[in-house]
Hints:
With 142 residues, this protein is of the alpha+beta class. It has helices at 2-11, 16-38, 115-118, and strands at 52-59, 70-75, 80-84, 86-88, 91-98, 106-113, 120-127, 135-137. It has two domains: 2-38; 52-137, Immunoglobulin-like, CATH 2.60.40. It has three helices and eight strands; from the N terminus they run H-H-E-E-E-E-E-E-H-E-E. The chain is globular, with a radius of gyration of 24 Å.
Amino acid sequence: xxxxxxxxxxxxxxxxxxxxxxxxxxxxxxxxxxxxxxxxxxxxxxxxxxxxxxxxxxxxxxxxxxxxxxxxxxxxxxxxxxxxxxxxxxxxxxxxxxxxxxxxxxxxxxxxxxxxxxxxxxxxxxxxxxxxxxxxxxxxxx
Length: 142
């Protein structure tokens, strides 16, 4: 498609139509190549890497008036991380990185802090190495 637009632009005499065709070919090239250059960040891990980025949504019990403020996940192997929650009313998003996830996955406890009045709730979860990429989506909603 890009080669065709470029050939058409080159074949035209130097006229306003050629200028438009060259501009179109340039815009088309930039529109197709730029996303490939920027793209998504490269995945840091695969099943053979112990690095896992855990991210997801969290919530403080249905339409609670309390907003989640922090998520803590402690793996059964001792590794633990705390993430602040980006809250949007009664729900929010979080993300954290683990560097010691075993190949078969590991059990963990996740705590969601809903503020001083909202309290804290917890859930047992499994953190595993994704077969592709390095992110595990883990929603923590009641």
